[in-house]
Amino acid sequence: MPRPKKRTATNPSEEIETTKRQKTASRSKHSQEESRFNTNRLIAWFKQYTTDDPSQLEPEGMERFCQDIKVEPEDIVMLVIAYKMNAKNMGYFTQTEFLKGLSDPEVLCDTPTKLKNKLDYFYNLIDDPQSFKMIFRYAYDFARDKDQRSMDIETAKAMLSLLLCKSWPLFPEFAEFLEQQPKAPRVINKDQWNNIFEFSRTINTDLSNYSIDGAWPVLLDDFVEYLQRKRQGNSS
């Protein structure tokens, strides 16, 4: 009758090492699953912010969304995120818009943490001249009252401040002009809006390359007249 084989004694240190490797492998697998973009996870994230209408994130949900990604609602990056989503109404994201923007190949965010880690990408779009031009133009239809063809002046001032206050040296004077002058408009139309951007990017702060015969809208001619009078008054 054959002798039973002796059981090999298990080395405790080997058991500990094996357990460590198994835990490491498990954590690695979990980490890979978390890092992989998942549309269902993105939809579930969106649903956290909806209330009466499950297909739309409304102002209250928007506030909680901003809190989760550690961004103030008034931060320009929220406008850039809306631009990537091609959102139609300020203060609202539909599920279609949310999925479109955050599943973009350059974004791929399905959790608040991933979006927080991606904020630099959105800020960098502001620094890219062509992207910023598109964001500026997008902002007009995004922010205006959809019942009106033009943007009311109070909304326009707020949006222009958000977009131009840090990048256009003449913005303080332009804001003053819109605030104080009788010639300042009560609404801004789309042509004026787009020309304000072009003016801010092409006309020197000393107005040396401005021409009265240029194709600028009357709004900007009036602003130049206001600014010249102000400077002449200061110099005298």
Automatic annotation (TrEMBL):
InterPro entries: DCN-prot, DCN1-like_PONY, PONY_dom
Region (Disordered): 1-36
GO BP terms in the entry: protein neddylation
UniProt GO molecular function: cullin family protein binding; ubiquitin conjugating enzyme binding; ubiquitin-like protein binding
PROSITE patterns: DCUN1
Cellular component GO terms, alphabetical: ubiquitin ligase complex
Ranges of residues in domain DCUN1: 37-228
Domain of life per record: Eukaryota
Protein role: Neddylation of cullins play an essential role in the regulation of SCF-type complexes activity.
Designated name of the protein: Defective in cullin neddylation protein
Species assigned in the record: Chironomus riparius
